[in-house]
Amino acid sequence: MPMKITLAQAMGTCFGVQDAIDMALDPDFKDRLTVVGQLVHNPQTTARLRANGVRIVERDQIDQIATEAVMITAHGASDATKQMLRDRGLMVYDATCPLVIRLHKLARFLERQGYFPVVIGEASHVEVRGVVGNLHSAAVVHDESDLAQLAGHARIGVVSQTTNRLEKVQMLVALIRSLPWVEDVRFIDTICEPVKERQQAIQSLLAQDIDLGIVIGGHNSANTRKLSELIADRAIETHLIEGPDELRSEWFVGKRHVGITAGTSTPQDVIEAVHAVVRHYADQPTARV
Q1: What is the pLDDT, as a whole number, of residue 289?
Q2: Which residue out of 127, 193, 197, 242 is catalytically annotated?
Q3: Can you give the pTM of this predicted structure?
């Protein structure tokens, strides 16, 4: 029987990522724009930006900016970072995703309401660093071991990194509510809708009894890693790849049904290229052994 291939119903570049890419590739910015950090966590997009004359520096390399214009990435940044760039005489363009802006606003809202802000996410992630940088005091919770940071805080306001898995966030919120010193917890769901849609599409793939998952996206993309985890958690062989050159023919030997998905920073042409190679492997006799 031929190996079946199913594409997730929702996958690939979201509107926030596409808006940031379109802004950076505006012809008016040709050879005069520096992006502070990776505009999006995708290697093909980064290469395309460089090919179009966009310079990229990390946040600890701001002294190296030699263009008149700089751009904040889709992941956002703190107000202090933006002001520091303006103070250097740079023209600052903000490509922060609207849903990340919403996260920033809601975290500050909870703080103003007297809650101790908690961000569920990865402390080292650029998005989380930007959110925390706008708060007077906050805690970042990645797993249960981080809950001790909340000692002494009776009123806690919780938001989430936009790329989290909903069930993990709900589990951590429940644990926060159960802490003996906590009297009031206000949770605002800030996981972005495109991420939720892609996670829900994974559930549809799993319901179709796939026995191999191919997840396309940057190895440093948080939302892409979460998609890979959703499949791997079901004890299904899963491979996270950045492009078709990383596919291996032996993965497909004896497989009945391959599910393909992609993170919110993955361009459509990369998805199509991977799909074409997978179709090629599906047509090989060894894939049906």
Answers
A1: 45
A2: 127
A3: 0.90
